[in-house]
Amino acid sequence: GDSVITVQLTEEDKVEDDVVFYLVFTGSTVQHCTSTRKINPGSLETISPGHDCCETVKVALCASREGHPVLVVAEESFQFVQDEAYDAAQFLATCAGNQQALNFTRFLDRSRPPAADVDFLDEKVALAFRHLKLPAEWNVLGVDQSLTENIPRETLMHFAVRLGLLRLTWFLLQQPGGRGALSIHNNEGATPVSLALERGYQKLHQLLTEEEAREPDSWSTLSHTVHSGDYSVKHHRGLDVYMLTAEA
């Protein structure tokens, strides 16, 4: 998801300014509808939706005009493929509670990627995580619930906070075990909260210490998503396009 899609219109499809084009992506379990913006009379631009699995979906280009029925202008197939962000999210999801794997991820901290790369990583991995089909019993702390909070260990929350990943941290907070992870010390005696404070991540520290923290608009420079039941609406600020996602 979140890649730019360009649509080239044929001569007969180039119409007046009052016609609105949008794309409908129909997958096996999820459907997305995206608005478009006109670059010129023959070209449209939009953002590809984040999908729930890697599959080929049907995509329809629709045209809407006030007082007229909606027309399907063209249909095509569109393939969602597994990318690095999806691989990273899957790896992190499977290593929740796995100390060997979580300690391995700490080498990323030593390389300290530039802030722009961290923002990009945060947006992409959080997006992929949101669309993973996590098992019903999945927990931020791993599947072994016999471990008590007094046992020092590394957690997914430590990983996200250490790199300053705001969106991923917010996502993990909403999952089972997310709040419990905040009070767990690692082998250096640090909790995710103390890590955020130590590294000067003020917004992250605020997120971890507020009882009902919401994902603030201003934290996402690329997009903002509002969820409501089986639906979500996403605004991509860069292109000023909107995306409605619903269970098919």
TrEMBL record:
GO biological processes: adrenergic receptor signaling pathway; positive regulation of canonical NF-kappaB signal transduction; regulation of Rho protein signal transduction
Molecular-function GO terms, alphabetical: MAP-kinase scaffold activity
GO cellular component: actin cytoskeleton; membrane
InterPro entries xref list: Ankyrin_rpt-contain_sf (IPR036770), Rho_GEF (IPR051632)
Parts forming coiled coils: none
Name used for this protein in its record: AKP13 protein
Organism of provenance: Oceanites oceanicus (Wilson's storm petrel)
